[in-house]
Design a protein that fits this description.
The chain has 207 residues and is an all-alpha fold. It has eight helices and no strands. Helix 1 runs antiparallel to helix 6, helix 2 runs antiparallel to helix 4 and helix 4 crosses helix 6.
Length: 207
Amino acid sequence: MFAVGIEWGNELQVLGQHVGYSALAVGFAVLIGLPLGVAIGHSGRGRNVMLAAFGVLRALPTLGLLTWLTLALPLGVRMPLVPSTIVLVVLAVPPVLAAAQSGVVSIPRPIVDAAVAMGLNTRQVVWSVELPLALPTILGGIRSCALQVIATATIAAYVGLGGLGRYLLDGMALRDYPLMLKGAVMVTVLALVVDGLFALVLKGRKV
């Protein structure tokens, strides 16, 4: 646990915590959004309702939702990591869901019809045809999701967790502006590095 007035020199620890919170949220978002998006794109059912529902959730104020969850959750699950992860997942699912749905829908229908005519069942069509063709779009959605989560994971500090948000929160409490700037710069650099890695992966897919 961090005390107010976080010391300089533990950047790797704080960075590792921030990456951990972000990776956890992105992982859950992919587990939820990817299957739903592919299913909606494949069947065409519930598209408008699902996208609208997640769009509304995404529009909720992040800190307000975090505060409400921290107070509303039962004592047994009120550990700081639980409400902060839920908030980040709510933010992260819509771009993954939308990208998966859009990627599947954008596949030319004759390709899918040809796969069905060859005797492939629904699961085989999804895994062997739709997912590989939609993968660049899906990766683009995960890329957007990851960047949003990295930028927003600073809220974890508001419920007593670590991460780069500690620099911002403790710097604000102490009026230590260099500490706040350090946190902001580290978040920006982390986002740029992750964005660059996704760009390399997407570039490799196009080669």
